[in-house]
């Protein structure tokens, strides 16, 4: 079965005529994005420039600033994501807000030919770069759809990753509920998002900078609490600068 065929089998309502003309399955058509805009950071992801430099320069540079010098490298992030997700040969993983597919391709290597890595994003320029960078033989498929409400069947995937995006969603709590919905019991989630400093005045500065860029600054216990409310257990949190890496298991 091809990756696109396997992706169609995951959808709650597969389209009668799938649009895969550009190498990804497009469920948004002419819409610029799936939900309401949240600010500058989100708009930049739909430009022609940022996707061109995103994987090699943009994400590593901004990530280093946010994580601090002691934070994990991009290679460390990918390894951490695989561990938090518990990926193994044959797994099915959804990479939400996949951007240019750097993590999705890595997940494809981890799950092997009997598994499937699905990269979901709403940005056409990002997905074009992802498709171009992904070998045709990889167990990877790309989906242009709503990241807050992924259009997958209930309990259809083994793992959900959302790195460096939850804080740009208009409805992050709804997104976490969606992740729980599409996960099978025992499935894993891995998140990289913001973490406001616990002390003033740094805390206030974090809030202001987040508001200016359209990025929500989460409190340090907020994500863990939201996950527990949605039935997740074994919550593991690691802080680095103004970021947090969170992994959890759906009961």
From TrEMBL:
InterPro entries: Methyltransf_11, SAM-dependent_MTases_sf. The keyword Chloroplast does not apply. It holds the Pfam family Methyltransf_11. GO terms for biological process: methylation. Keywords: Methyltransferase, Transferase, Ubiquinone. The keyword Membrane does not apply. GO terms for molecular function: S-adenosylmethionine-dependent methyltransferase activity. Residues 94-190 form the Methyltransferase type domain. This is Ubiquinone/menaquinone biosynthesis C-methylase UbiE.
